[in-house]
Amino acid sequence: MKLKNSAPQSGNWVVAHSGARDEYQLPISLNEAGLLYRFVTDWYSSFDNKYISKILHKAPVRILPLLKERFRQELPSDLVVDLKIQRMIGHIVGEEFTEMRLNRLIGERAAQLANSNESNLLVTSYYGWSAFPNVSKYSKKVLFQIHPHPMFLRDHYSKHLDTISAYGSLQHEAEMKASDSFLRIWGNESNEADVVIAASTFTRMSLLYAGVTPEKIHVVPYGVDESIFRNDISSPTGKVKILFVGQATQRKGFNHLLKAWSKIANTDAELHIVTSAPSSICNVDLGDSIVLHDRLNIRNLVMLMNESDLLVLPSIAEGYGHVLLQSLSCGTPVLCSDATAGPDLLIDWDQGFIFPNGDIEALKERLEYWLSKKHQLRKIRSDAKQIAAAQTWKKFRLGIREVCNI
């Protein structure tokens, strides 16, 4: 018989985060070992329920793929508690309500379930601030830090405000808009956690900057699905193709990329931009050498990665930058700032693929160098794929369980 107010058994875990983050690898990591009690999220599509599945399959063609993204066969819906009603209400009321209130509700619900079953708790950042204060002192509290620490990000972003542009200003980032009082509460979730997991050394550095105890920080790198991101579809030919994939925001270094590109006098190269909101930059003079793509499905994105010589990610700050690993898995080398997982992934490559974040001149010089080394880039594609092959989702899930001591 289980004693109340005793330490939870290792088989009891509640996981919480919103969205289909990282293809639900956190709850799947515990469920595949028979350790998941419940997963709390904002919306989950129960395609494994024959009645609900019939209803979901009647959704409009443009919506059905989005619904399918919110389901994994490895994560049965009877283990999921979602707050879809609150989410829909939030969208009606407004986006700001959705973000703040849903984050709090997800965290509080996760704590409630952990207490009801005497479970341990694994949540991503943005939910620990509301979950940890409400969970039993006997439960192990594990935080997966998605982005760098919010206190670090506010200070870091402030150093780059002189490069603010009309599109993607850093002032619109959550860490800059949050009140001082909430930022302290938000930032304290990593101090309240017993264990903090980061996917990159850069994120770990941000936690140390914020005063988190070094001993409780563990780096568990992300994985990639090689069956999807593969390099047997096509390969680069003709003129050099540089690829950017991500939001057209200053945090992603998008404006720095455009400034650097405008200074490059190379008529035999193209910069391909894939962003989810191309209309946000329709008033920007992109020039003839820049090709703008609307949101691409996964198949077309993988094909474009294969056709590209180099992917560039000039971010000001990234928790990881998963597109780097996806690109490498396709055999496409990457050029990235030092504020990403690049220094972790490219440890055996020369530093010609990494430059200081926010340094437009350094970005320009690296681009010019690799534009002149087209044949060299195409020779190292197998090396790029080998880097990615060492990073699997299976390895990531095992790492999560090891850090949780289960």
The chain-level structural class is: alpha/beta
The average pLDDT value, as a whole number, equals 90
Which regions contain 5 or more consecutive residues with pLDDT less than 50? 1-10
Total number of helices: 19
Q: What is the CATH fold-level name of the largest domain?
A: Rossmann fold
Shape: globular
CATH class of the largest domain: Alpha Beta
Number of domains: 2
Largest sheet: 7 strands, parallel
What's the β-strand tally?
13
The helical percent reads 25-40%
Widest sheet: strand ordering: 3-2-1-4-5-6-7
Percent in strands:
5-15%
The radius of gyration is 22 Å
State the end-to-end distance. Answer: 21 Å
Oligomer: single chain
Under the CATH scheme, the architecture of the largest domain is: 3-Layer(aba) Sandwich
Tell me briefly what this model is:
The protein has 19 helices and 13 strands.
Describe the structure.
The chain has helices spanning 25-31, 50-56, 64-69, 84-93, 95-116, 128-131, 150-158, 174-177, 180-187, 189-192, 201-209, 254-262, 298-307, 322-329, 342-345, 360-371, 374-379, 381-389, 393-403; strands at residues 13-16, 36-41, 80-82, 120-124, 141-145, 195-198, 217-219, 240-245, 269-274, 290-293, 310-313, 334-337, 354-355. With 406 residues, the protein is α/β, with parallel strands linked by helices. It folds into 2 domains: 13-223 and 393-403, Rossmann fold (3-Layer(aba) Sandwich); 240-389, 3-Layer(aba) Sandwich (Rossmann fold). The strands form 2 sheets. A 7-stranded parallel β-sheet has the order 3-2-1-4-5-6-7, sandwiched between helices. Helix 1 packs across helix 19 (393-403) and helix 4 (84-93) runs antiparallel to helix 5 (95-116). Mean pLDDT is 90; it is low at 1-10.
